[in-house]
Amino acid sequence: MIEEKYIELMHREIDGVCSEGESAQLRGYLKENPEASRYFEELSAIARMFNSVEELEPPAELRENIFSAVFGRARETRERESSASLFDVFRLTFNRKFAYAFTAGLVVGICLFALLFRAAPSRVPGDLDHLYGTLATKERQAQVFTAEPIDFDLPAASGSLQIQYTSDTILATFSLLSESRIRAVFEYPDNLHFEGLRASDNRDYAFNVTGNKAELIHIGNRDYVAVFKGSLETRTAVDMRIFADGSLLFERTILLGRE
Description:
Layout: H1 4-15, H2 20-32, H3 34-51, H4 62-93, H5 96-119, E1 145-146, E2 150-153, E3 157-165, E4 169-187, E5 192-199, E6 205-210, E7 213-230, E8 236-244, E9 247-256
Antiparallel strand pairs: 1-3, 2-3, 3-4, 4-7, 4-8, 5-7, 6-7, 8-9
Helix pairs in contact: 1-2, 1-3, 2-3
């Protein structure tokens, strides 16, 4: 434990204001007290560290920054005082006479609006039986038709076919399941042409288009989407056939378009 008076002597010694007698007394105390000696060395090291720090010069623009801050604060004060004075003027000029006039004008305006609204003819007749007219979209949307779905379950293959079409596009979605290789053939008239085929994967199938015939060679379980383009303004027949080992297993004709 370091006595308080010796801590004070340490600070005075570091500051260089101790007398010769005080310095001798402090040296004798530090010689007999190792804890106090360590404390004095730490204080001396800290003092030397602060003494080694160079004095910093203020930046050249400090004076301008101070004046700018003072003038800006004064300008804000003037603006607040100006706003308060405007509010005071409004408060002093607002009296009961003006309030009555404003209220009366508002009531008259509401009454006139109600009278004009009642006098105006109604846009919708009270009796909806006499309501007539025509509704039409700004842009005609393509009408989509759905053909009757086809399902087949054969010894060598099974599957389904669903066709949706518009006046110029046919979308055929079909699924095939077979353990051996089969051929699915689509035949279509001259007013149609084959646009493309998409399969759920690229394994074990091949596709070929010749003339008005699209032929698919398939094995396994897979989904397909085929697209045909052309005019369906007249009745159009599309034939679907399934072959296995050169034999016809299934045949169906799908009628599309207007009757």
